């Protein structure tokens, strides 16, 4: 489809370059915002926008009111840019629906980033899995400062038993955007692991979600 669109819009890209994984950010963005203009003009506009907002993340987080007043954007293109992050969020949210199997850490990371990276408050969530790592339920459990007084192991265990979970993945975000676990994060991980082990449920990981990445406590040997 990208190849057809490129041909219709008179692009100068080679066939191999029309595969998304071979395109630069500006080339992908140009296809989205082309809207009848020439490819060369769309590329120039895309490159200018990426410089202006410091990359794709800055551009897509800027908001419609800001982007529509940029030269060459206008209302229609601003609406398209506003829709892109939500489309991405829904895509990754669908990837871990009930019954879906988690096949790789990237599945979990992308799902959690889509759900939690833009929050301005801390949210503690649990992903409950069966013994084949199929999703049973994703629950938003606690809001506010995540420490030993705001996260209740008995509630996590109760939900796990209620869906007959064999394993749990914990996750919470850092509104600062820095996905670095604190001592409080490590303490609550140990408490929850101990509580789950009492009912023979495995804690697979605790992921800290930042603005663009996650940190796995399991990968650091803290689970």
Characterization of the model:
- By secondary structure, this protein is α+β, with helices and mostly antiparallel strands.
- The chain folds into two domains: 2-93; 98-216, Cytidine Deaminase, domain 2, CATH 3.40.140.10.
- Helix content is 44%, strand content 15%.
- It contains nine helices and five strands; from the N terminus they run αααααααββαβαββ.
- The chain has helices at 2-8, 25-33, 39-53, 56-61, 64-67, 74-94, 105-116, 153-162, 183-197; strands at residues 123-129, 135-143, 167-173, 202-209, 214-216.
- It has a five-stranded mixed beta sheet, sandwiched between helices.
- The longest helix is centred in the middle third of the chain and has 21 residues, at 74-94.
- The protein is elongated, with a radius of gyration of 21 Å.
Describe this structure in a few short sentences.
The protein has helices spanning 2-8, 25-33, 39-53, 56-61, 64-67, 74-94, 105-116, 153-162, 183-197; strands at 123-129, 135-143, 167-173, 202-209, 214-216. It has 9 helices and 5 strands, in the order αααααααββαβαββ.
CATH architecture call of the largest domain? 3-Layer(aba) Sandwich
Query: What radius of gyration results from the CA coordinates?
Result: 21 Å
Order of strands across the main sheet: 2-1-3-4-5
The rough form would be described as elongated
The CATH superfamily of the largest domain appears as Cytidine Deaminase, domain 2
The span between the termini is 44 Å
